[in-house]
Amino acid sequence: MTSSVPGPRRAPTRGKRAFAATWWGQAWLTALEDSSLDSGRLSRGRTYARKGMVGPVTIAPGQVKAAVQGSRPRPYRSSVHLPVLTDTQWDTLLDTIAARAGHLAALLDGEMPAELVDDARRAGVPFLPQPAELDPECSCPDWGYPCKHAAALCYAIAATIDDDPFVLFALRGRGREEVFAQLHALRTAAQETAAPPAPAGIPAATAYAGWAEEPPALPELPEPAAHTTALPVAPPPGTGLAAADLERLMADVTARAARLLAGDTAHLHLTQHQDAVRIAASNPGPEWFHHLIQNTGTDPTAFARLTRSWRHGGPVGITVTEQPHTPDPVAMTTARTALTTALAEMTDSPVPLRAWRNRLTLTADGIQLRLGPDTRWYPYLQDDDGEWWPAAPADADPVAALTGAWSQNGE
Asked: Which residue from 3, 138, 215, 316 has the least number of CB within 10 angstroms?
């Protein structure tokens, strides 16, 4: 789910609040300005936005990005990340909207009701961005947080958020059509299904006492079924289902069930998005790969990158690719010292090593190491377009991970 919009629709002439006229657009800017201690960079960012130096903006779950023209001829790649809501948080948010007809009516009119945001916050869902959630990133050498280019992107997108509050929904993980479809389903179910009467029940103490006197025996585990991938009957004609595709899915389900019975629960809680990547990583063939991209609505290049991430690191590999985080500073310092020492022994001249969040980058060599939540280092290589791609399996030793990336870079 990715969309592109042009640069800012207007160039405000004065004042930081001139970029946003609505209260929800101003909330976006407040989160930006409260997260920064450098008013000078924010001021430069506003100037860049006013001058139209922000290119077409791409909006995707968890991030907004654009090329921003700076002092050099080639624009910088700037982005701002925002955590997406979990499935549970989305369920709570949608229930909150569906519970009050006024919320849905306001959204249909292109308005963000303040009561909706208050209701969601009381339910534990942080819908509007908080200062600590906005996470800027830029290819420029400026170490500001944010730099003036990322700040310009934030100010430029504020006008779009003003016009369409569903940009905030998209950044949190779901677009307009998906949200309205799920709200329609919720309201339809509420109208068609009457609430069943609550059971009379018995006091909890009584129920526990009865169980303690005669605890029920655990059922015997069934014998595992014979592994088979042959369909008992052919799919009905005219359904569009292919026997070969169904048999491949049966084989996949059988293999996953066998791993679960053996105690492997690593893939038990995959999202639909992650499971599609898992299937693609099993080399199902180009036709399946194309269908997985088409049916998930994912950018082909991003999907290919995540597929490679899975092959090198499974679910954790996807997390490392999509979500930068702030790790333990001691771990980063220790790794940087080890890498600096190793590089000094391998080369005759100093090698610049850039650190940002959980990433250590050898800019001149196009190599980056990312520290994952599993405390392993994931090597990445930069392609000719400046995009970072997983390059080799992760390693607990940053020097070994660097060696793996270096060997791939030389191929």
From this structure: 215
